[in-house]
Design brief:
Mean pLDDT: 90
Largest sheet: 3 strands, antiparallel
Helix content: 55-70%
Shape: globular
Strand content: 5-15%
Structural class: mainly alpha
Order of helices and strands: EEHHHHHEH
Distance between the termini: 73 Å
Oligomer: single chain
Length: 156
Amino acid sequence: MEIQSNEQTSATGPWISMRPHERLLCVLAAFGLFCVFLLARYGLTPDPRGVGTHQQLGFPPCLTMTLFGIPCPFCGMTTAFTYMAHGDPVAAFWCQPAGSVVFVAAALAWLASIVFAIRGDWPPQLFSVRSARVLAIIGVLVVLAGWAYKIGASVR
């Protein structure tokens, strides 16, 4: 008797077949990210100050900036994301480099969600502890570098 596997082999190894609810989660993730992109493109206008775009969503001004006069680690992220959605990557990068990286990461996650939902499987490397650690470290480093840049830009 032969045991059938629902794994496919690719250049990076076997892919894991998704259960129906996992496929639905990919569809929902793709839809949610698409809504974020639409909001950034059509619902928000990048604040020319380089911070404060999030206030168009009803959020208060940055407390760190208000109390201490220095930007928080996330100051300018929404503005940079919105500049990217408006097709101005140069302004986005000068505003907050980490926000530009977040936009690109979100776009890649959107594409991956669509591909995985259509294919019905995904690479197991996505769920390894090592991958999670590497992504977390990269994320923290990107945010810290963007924060250092934003502090330096606000001192000038």
